[in-house]
């Protein structure tokens, strides 16, 4: 199988190219997150699955670019960047804000008759469930406190004031995108949806997680894990196993 020409691709990162893999997994980071967060996923699944990670503007090597603080605009941009990679079946995986974005990208792909094998939505309420959250309107110090409360950033980063201040535009932009998102209703996915969430996550209730079932006409299942919003830090291997099973089933 051929690999798209991806020299200097700003959006799509490929840490362990797997040219012989039959399926591709596309990973969408959380608010304030970046593509390298999924290095362990790529390492675990390669070479059986070709793992891609999306790098949003405004962070790391893209920090000089303006953040995209709107989910619809971000989904449009990511979908366009993914089209060259649709020569193999795709599985989409997103955590927190990334789950919402992955859902919107899946909708756009299906409108182009590209139906993903599955959507894995992690640590995020269903698109139809709304909360009046306004973290993006808080001061930098208050946003930092929010990050610490959710334990979504490594202790090294949280302890480095300079790094945090540099990352703040991206963090605030992502929170703006996540918190101002409104599901317009109507279209549902044909692709199956697999939901994973932490039982102690203050951002996702069981009901909000189960409501993802409303957003697909295909199969739906849900798996709870011990832990909070970033349950993945400890439960990652179990989620990776679930993704591997779906990818394997598609090739047998």
UniProtKB/TrEMBL annotation:
| Full protein name | Surfactin synthase thioesterase subunit
* GO biological process, alphabetically ordered: lipid biosynthetic process
- Family according to the record: Belongs to the thioesterase family.
The record, for InterPro entries, names: AB_hydrolase_fold (IPR029058), TEII (IPR012223), TesA-like (IPR020802), Thioesterase (IPR001031)
Residues forming the Thioesterase TesA-like domain are 26-247
Q: Superkingdom, according to UniProt?
A: Bacteria
- A Pfam family that this protein carries is Thioesterase
Q: Output one GO MF annotation.
A: hydrolase activity
Organism in which the protein naturally occurs: Streptomyces luteogriseus
